[in-house]
């Protein structure tokens, strides 16, 4: 490519254009200001957020909804440190994101200059890679490599920190057409011998489970997963990060496993003789007490990240590669193995169906006639429909949204799974709506989460991003209150938010350019949701004033064995040793 003379700032913006960026979320400031001048003339849409954390979560929501790399941009010092939480959040959930930050001039680095922070050093443990660029000639290559690293292999968050003088100096622009990084060679195709070993285990298993994680969505493996499930006849469980990777309506789906998973899903993993683990990482919220997790199961572990293999649970067979390609290659091997011997799963399914029938997901209506949060979320899913994108905050409402909405398609459920970031929902929904403008996007938020990042509703109102917010207002930090109820003798220390008095969320929404609605009676829920659904030219905030003492069930207490799953406040395990 012929070289062209320009400033480092122009090279940065032109590099983003070459990388295919169509939108980025950010706030200007001193160190990054030189880049904002060429942004003025760029076809890239820049959305001016109200807080850098909002920019980061919006980039994540955009990436999760669209499958493309999300981009955010901020200045040095506090601008950059405000991106730390969304960077850690994106990295934990394997979301492709590139953050561009300005840095003080190279001769001032290390002097405690105004608005200086070693953001490269700060973020090194929580990103896939971090760059510090002090030479303008290196800007184009750093950007190209950042997008390559963020979007290939196991996706993740990458930071590019650029010194102010590098943005101001002239350079020859030369965007690389090929990236070849020493030491970074993601493996995409699993070894044939391992595929055959996996197929042999599947052909011998009489109680297998397809344990599906977020990698199934990242690799767009949902169609192949459906074929695999129907070929093997095995039950499917989808983790919190995998909701929508397999249709909830499919008879083979047992629901979500883990701390607040269905009894059938949790128990199936415990009693399985083979875990066919697909793009999942044996997270502690799924395994419970690790030493007691799936004690009799052999493990097939398919993942693109070799570091995950046998990290928490020993893998008998490792399938390292892109999950979509892995499943596609595994299917003919299974068909060949089944020609020799195909197990009878009838007894296993009889057992699974008995657990499913005995312990279905459900909830009690409040005896005082007040509003059930589960009912609100269930109706929201039914009325809005399976094409809707839902972004949840963190806490009880997140778990209810994962339980009581039926997910039929990938990229329709967005949440902060690994880091568990309160305040994620509103900016993530904003990013999702930008990434999928033709979709209805609901943020399901708690009154605690909402008060952390609701300022981005101003961004939505001013930029024609008509998201809808359902605030599940139980005037509490609900999940913490649940734990205080169960484990701290109802000593509710600092969990009462008084959110049904201050603020008035409907009026707050109106003050920020949104339509504000409220609902506190069960008979008004459907009409309120339908009213919100009818408004598509501005954001909508709905304050659902719900019963404060509803709890999330089932539950496996932190550190407990999955065998001790409970479904009621008594905390009596649903199984005794004889039943299991």
From TrEMBL:
The Thiamine pyrophosphate enzyme N-terminal TPP-binding domain, residue ranges: 6-119
Domain Thiamine pyrophosphate enzyme TPP-binding: 393-544
Protein name: acetolactate synthase
Residue span(s) of domain Thiamine pyrophosphate enzyme central: 196-330
Entry's Gene Ontology cellular component terms: acetolactate synthase complex
Gene Ontology BP terms: isoleucine biosynthetic process; L-valine biosynthetic process
InterPro entries per record: Acetolactate_synth_lsu, AHAS_TPP, DHS-like_NAD/FAD-binding_dom, THDP-binding, Thiamin_PyroP_enz_cen_dom, Thiamin_PyroP_enz_TPP-bd_dom, TPP-bd_CS, TPP_enz
Pathway: Amino-acid biosynthesis; L-isoleucine biosynthesis; L-isoleucine from 2-oxobutanoate: step 1/4; Amino-acid biosynthesis; L-valine biosynthesis; L-valine from pyruvate: step 1/4
SUPFAM superfamilies tied to this protein: DHS-like NAD/FAD-binding domain, Thiamin diphosphate-binding fold (THDP-binding)
Known cofactor(s): thiamine diphosphate; Mg(2+)
Family stated for the protein in its record: Belongs to the TPP enzyme family.
PANTHER family: ACETOLACTATE SYNTHASE CATALYTIC SUBUNIT, MITOCHONDRIAL, THIAMINE PYROPHOSPHATE ENZYMES
Keywords linked to the UniProt accession: Amino-acid biosynthesis, Branched-chain amino acid biosynthesis, FAD, Flavoprotein, Magnesium, Metal-binding, Thiamine pyrophosphate, Transferase
Gene Ontology molecular function: acetolactate synthase activity; flavin adenine dinucleotide binding; magnesium ion binding; thiamine pyrophosphate binding
Keyword Magnesium annotated: yes
Catalytic activity: 2 pyruvate + H(+) = (2S)-2-acetolactate + CO2
EC number assigned by the record: 2.2.1.6
């Amino acid at each position: 490519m012929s070289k062209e003379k320009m400033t480092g700032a122009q090279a940065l913006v032109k590099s983003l254009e070459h990388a295919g960026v169509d939108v980025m979320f950010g706030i200007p400031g001193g160190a990054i200001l030189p880049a904002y001048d060429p942004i003025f003339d760029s076809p890239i849409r820049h959305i001016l957020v109200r807080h850098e954390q909002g920019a980061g979560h919006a980039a994540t929501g955009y990436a999760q909804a669209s499958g493309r790399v999300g981009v955010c941009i901020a200045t040095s010092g506090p601008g950059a440190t405000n991106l730390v939480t969304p960077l850690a959040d994106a990295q934990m959930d394997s979301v492709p994101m590139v953050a561009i930050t300005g840095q003080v001039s190279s001769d001032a680095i290390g002097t405690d200059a105004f608005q200086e922070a070693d953001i490269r050093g700060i973020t090194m443990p929580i990103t896939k890679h971090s760059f510090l660029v002090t030479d303008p000639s290196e800007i184009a290559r750093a950007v190209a490599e950042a997008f390559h690293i963020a979007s290939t292999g196991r996706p993740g968050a990458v930071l590019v920190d650029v010194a102010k003088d590098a943005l101001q100096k002239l350079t020859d622009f030369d965007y690389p057409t090929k990236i070849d990084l020493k030491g970074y060679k993601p493996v995409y195709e699993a070894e044939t011998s391992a595929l055959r070993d996996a197929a042999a285990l599947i052909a011998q298993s009489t109680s297998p489970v397809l344990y599906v994680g977020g990698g199934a969505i990242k690799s767009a493996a949902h169609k192949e997963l459906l074929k695999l499930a129907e070929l093997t006849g095995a039950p499917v469980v989808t983790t919190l990060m995998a909701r929508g990777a397999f249709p909830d309506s499919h008879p083979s789906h047992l629901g979500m496993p883990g701390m607040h998973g269905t009894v059938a899903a949790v128990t199936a993993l415990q009693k399985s003789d083979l875990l066919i683990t697909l793009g999942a990482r044996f997270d502690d919220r799924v395994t419970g007490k690790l030493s007691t997790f799936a004690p009799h199961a052999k493990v097939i572990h398919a993942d693109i990240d070799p570091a995950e293999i046998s990290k928490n649970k020993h893998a008998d067979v490792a399938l390292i590669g892109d999950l979509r390609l892995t499943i596609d290659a595994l299917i003919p091997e299974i068909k060949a193995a089944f020609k020799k011997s195909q197990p009878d799963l009838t007894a296993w399914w009889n057992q699974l169906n008995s657990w499913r029938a005995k312990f279905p997901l459900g909830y009690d209506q409040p005896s005082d006639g007040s509003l059930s949060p589960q009912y609100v979320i269930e109706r929201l899913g039914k009325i809005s429909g399976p094409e809707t994108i839902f972004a949840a905050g963190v806490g009880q409402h997140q778990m209810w949204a994962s339980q009581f909405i039926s997910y039929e398609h990938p990229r329709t459920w967005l949440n902060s799974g690994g880091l568990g970031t309160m305040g994620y929902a509103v900016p993530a929904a904003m990013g999702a709506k930008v990434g999928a403008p033709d979709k209805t996007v609901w943020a399901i938020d708690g009154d605690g989460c909402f008060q952390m990042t609701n300022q981005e509703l101003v961004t939505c109102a001013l930029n024609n991003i008509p998201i809808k917010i359902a605030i599940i207002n139980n005037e509490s930090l609900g999940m913490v209150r649940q734990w205080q109820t169960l484990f701290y003798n109802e000593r509710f220390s600092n969990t009462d938010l008084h959110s049904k008095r201050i603020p008035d969320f409907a009026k707050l929404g109106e003050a920020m350019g949104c339509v504000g609605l409220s609902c506190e009676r069960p008979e008004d829920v459907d009409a309120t949701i339908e009213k919100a659904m009818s408004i598509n030219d501005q954001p909508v905030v709905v304050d659902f004033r719900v019963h404060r003492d509803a709890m999330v069930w089932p539950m496996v207490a932190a550190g407990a064995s999955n065998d001790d799953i409970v479904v009621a406040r008594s905390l009596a395990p649903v199984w005794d040793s004889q039943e299991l």
